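Ticket #256: bound-state structure for glyceraldehyde-3-phosphate.
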Amino acid sequence: MRKQIVAGNWKMNLTVTEGQALVQQVLEQLPELSAQKQVIFGTPFLHLCQAVAQTKDTANVGVAAQNCHHQASGAYTGEIAAGMLQAAGVQSVIIGHSERRMYNHEDNALLAKKVDAALAANLHVIFCCGESLDIRDADTQNAFVEQQLNESIFHLSAEQMAQVTIAYEPIWAIGTGRTASAAQAQDMHAHIRGVLAAKYGESISQQTSILYGGSCKASNAVELFSCPDVDGGLIGGASLLADDFLGIIRAMVSTR
Ligand SMILES: O=C[C@H](O)COP(=O)(O)O
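RESOLUTION: The complex was predicted; output attached.
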């Protein structure tokens, strides 16, 4: 059975001291996680070493960066390479978040290079995809998401795909309080799984975790995570308070 994952994405929030306290509170009240359930803290770069030190002795809990550069090293002032993350004990990196696509002009071709850089450094990739409201209103979201996957991750080998988690995040649901309905999430996740099956075969398709992101909170997480193709969530705002995040983690533990 594929993994269920609840990954927090703190975005550009919290000081290191605040982040340290949040991780501590979550770990203190963390429910028991079976090997098929995973919790990830996606922190700003500055927090990563602290979060790695705090979580290193807790099974099935890991740390993700929110970005990495597409080159392994070089004269790229202000950037962080995937190898640096790996050497610091970080296990995963979020690539292709819609906020980076929008504010940092990251397109599918650049994201493909970032995915390659992350996998070359033995990082697990949480690859984000998802459509804008215009695309949803035009009912072309399936083709749009399929193109994102095609152009950024479908050059990978089957072996590499085993190191990728997909996060479907409809842009119109991010930070808006307007969650995709469980049916909308399930429809898209089933579509993504179908596309994966066509490209990589049934086994890889069934093994790949597909997370939902966009105004997911404790009150709707059980319904979302009960969908057969929704394998957890990538959580923004509700990952910033221990009680909210723990509520979503409990939802994961209570489903499947
Ligand atoms: O990466 C997380 C997503 O952007 C969701 O953010 P949100 O939970 O604040 O809507």
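RESOLUTION NOTES: The chain has twelve helices and eight strands.
TICKET STATUS: resolved
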